[in-house]
Design goal:
The complex is a heterodimer of chains A (116) and B (111). Chain A has 116 residues and is mainly beta. In chain A, 0% of the residues lie in helices and 48% in strands. Chain A is built from no helices and 11 strands. In chain A, strands 2, 4, 5, 6, 9, 10 and 11 form a 7-stranded mixed beta sheet that branches. A 4-stranded antiparallel beta sheet of chain A has the order 1-3-8-7, with no helix packed on it. The mean pLDDT of chain A is 90. In chain B, strand 6 and strand 7 form a beta hairpin. By secondary structure, chain B is mostly beta strands. The chains are: A mainly beta (116), B mainly beta (111). At the A-B interface, strand 4, strand 5 and strand 10 of A face strand 4, strand 5, strand 9 and strand 10 of B.
Chain lengths: 116, 111
């Protein structure tokens, strides 16, 4: 999906380092969702943001994880002091709130984090 | 806890057959239902959405929704090897707009 841009596509970190994943939503979309996908598992919701506002972060681990969507620039998912269990594919999705297709998400290609 | 359940499969069907994928959900407040297709190593791609009880057809795909039974299904007619992928079912309620995804069903269409 060329509309939602995520980078980096692949990221390797050693335990204890920080990982920053970036997401630019589709043009005209003001709502961003982050999901995590572990091997052989489904997509697990992490956080839902609008510009400068976290709407729902009920899926975010309480420690080490944070997300933002500033007025200017991409949304960023930040993982501090990474551990091997953080290795996963992190997908960003965007949606145009108010669309008749409420809940329809457009996904980026994902950022695959490997923690050594 | 909102749950969406799917059989992980794999579901194997011959080319040209009908593939039937099923999904149940726990939240009775769910109003919108989605089927996404995900090829290995790729991002999920929306293929169908359904809001009302009954059937909705789009080309070779038919989504079926039964809110009383909390059951959603996807039928793929004339299955092709290119349909081989993982199919993710998702449900969202009108209040949160946050889709909850199932683990996905792996479909294999063999020639």
């Amino acid at each position: 999906n060329a509309g939602v841009m995520q980078n980096p596509r692949h990221l390797v970190r050693r335990r204890g380092q920080e990982a920053r994943l970036r997401c630019s939503p589709m043009k005209g979309h003001s709502h961003v969702y982050w999901y995590r996908q572990l091997p052989e598992e489904g997509l697990k919701f992490m956080v839902y943001l609008q510009k400068e506002n976290i709407i729902d972060e009920s899926g975010m681990p309480k420690e080490r994880f944070s997300a933002e969507f500033p007025k200017e620039g991409p949304s960023i998912l930040r993982i501090q002091q990474v551990v091997r269990g953080d290795s996963a594919a992190y997908f960003c999705a965007s949606s145009p709130r108010g669309s008749p297709n409420t809940g329809e998400l457009f996904f980026g290609e994902g950022s695959r984090l490997t923690v050594l | 806890q909102k749950e969406v359940e799917q059989n992980s499969g794999p579901l194997s069907v011959p080319e040209g057959a009908i593939a039937s994928l099923n999904c149940t959900y726990s939240d009775r407040g769910s109003q919108s239902f989605f089927w996404y297709r995900q090829y290995s190593g790729k991002s999920p791609e929306l293929i169908m959405f359904i809001y009302s009880n009954g059937d909705k057809e789009d080309g070779r795909f038919t989504a079926q929704l039964n809110k009383a039974s909390q059951y959603v299904s996807l039928l793929i007619r004339d299955s092709q090897p290119s349909d081989s992928a993982t199919y993710l079912c998702a449900a969202s309620s009108g209040g949160s707009y946050i889709p909850t995804f199932g683990r996905g069903t792996s479909l294999i269409v063999h020639p």
